[in-house]
Write a structure and sequence with these properties.
Structural class: mainly alpha
Number of strands: 0
Shape: globular
Number of helices: 5
Largest sheet: none
Order of helices and strands: HHHHH
Distance between the termini: 54 Å
Helix content: over 70%
């Protein structure tokens, strides 16, 4: 018997690791916004937030993203398959995000400590993110491929749940950072 048997379970650990992902991804998103949008006083739509506020905004957006995308996975899983397989798919998503959170933490710390390394660290972090997404997509492949016509559903899934939300997160965060004083 262990002292932690009754206090720590898989769900709590996955929630904490997904929060770690949101924090790491927030730092990395702020670094990406700094590289792409940046601060240019001559341009009226520039990001002028102080770094701590900008990082906090980006962390909040990443936390909202991971919550909404997990909910969307649950809805899609329940629509296209039975509840048991949907739960397995959602657990796969949270596990994939948790692994990404652990692997994204070092680049996030290094971006804060060594800003000159930001371009290389963002490439590393993007590679980790893409690898985790590919692993999750391959794991969830069995939900969508029951028939040959499932290719169309799979393409809809890729666009609506994997590509478009990331684009919306980036542009929404940039717009939010521009609008905040």
């Amino acid at each position: 018997s262990n002292a932690f048997d009754d206090t720590v379970d898989e769900t709590v650990l996955l929630i904490l690791l997904n929060a770690l992902w949101a924090a790491s991804a927030g730092v990395l998103l702020w670094a990406l916004i700094g590289m792409t949008a940046g601060y240019n006083p001559a341009w009226s739509l520039s990001v002028s937030l102080p770094q701590p506020v900008g990082i906090a905004v980006c962390m909040g957006v990443c936390a909202i993203y991971v919550t909404l995308i997990t909910t969307a996975y649950w809805v899609v899983g329940n629509v296209f398959t039975d509840s048991r397989r949907a739960v397995l798919w959602v657990k796969g998503a949270t596990a994939s995000t948790a692994i990404g959170g652990v692997l994204s933490l070092p680049p996030a710390f290094l971006v804060l400590c060594y800003p000159s390394w930001t371009p290389k660290l963002l490439i590393i972090a993007a590679s980790v993110f893409i690898l985790c997404k590919i692993l999750f997509i391959l794991k969830g492949f069995r939900i969508f491929f029951d028939h040959l016509s499932s290719w169309l559903l799979f393409l809809y899934y890729l666009c609506s749940l994997e590509i478009v939300p990331l684009i919306l997160v980036y542009f929404g965060t940039v717009a939010l950072c521009i609008m905040l004083p």
